[in-house]
Amino acid sequence: MSSAHLQIxxxxxxxxxxxxxxxxxxxxxxxxxxxxxxxxxLKKYVGLDINLNSIRTAKLKFKNDKxxxxxxxxxxxxxxxxKYSSLDAIILVGVLQYLTPxxxxxxxxxxxxxxxxxxxxxxxxxxxxFLYKCFxxxxxxxxxxxISKSMVTRLFHTSGLEILEATxxxxxxxxxxxxxxxxxxxxxxxxxxxxxxxxxLFGRLGRKLMEPVIRWEYxxxxxxxxxxxxxxxxx
Length: 235
Known about the structure:
Elements (H helix, E strand, L loop, with lengths): L1 H14 L5 E6 L15 E8 L2 H10 L6 E5 L14 E7 L7 H14 E12 L3 H5 L14 H10 L2 E9 L3 H20 L8 H18 L8 E8 L1
Parallel strand pairs: 1-2, 1-4, 2-3, 4-5
Antiparallel strand pairs: 5-7, 6-7
Helix pairs in contact: 6-7
């Protein structure tokens, strides 16, 4: 959803004081986040994903621009960020819910080592509320878990990351689309016009139709919702 990506970019630009940002987009998919990042603020963008088709799609989009780099992570790897030691930001958009508890802990420990002083870890994930889990039809297509806010904030603290922002957004329309309507659109894509590596025609159309409503909902002054956003900084 572009609302979540826009919110992530808002936090990045709000809390990063670097003129040029070196960032890793963990679970980048086909590089969708790049559509919302101002290129004049990027020093280097590295996208990581276990889906090889998504990485191939992303590379085709930006094959002539050295600012962007995409790398395939083999499934089961334990090396997420060990190649890096001075990142300005690590971003995870809707990734944690697809990782095991062991993988999440490993990710946090490696993120702390890879980030530069004052570096940022910014993430969004499906928040652990009973009501949303009851209507989670999308789990039939893409199995995932819901993430406890207290668990994630505890990981930030134990990893030596100061929490700058922790909020939930998307009270009603976001879960209705993410848990129910998205199943309809993505199922049509799967049956009629499957596109490996990125969303199909109907998936993109459904998200485009719902985007104005979800964006409006994100601006409501309510700290409760389907999507949890947390921003942490290296102390």
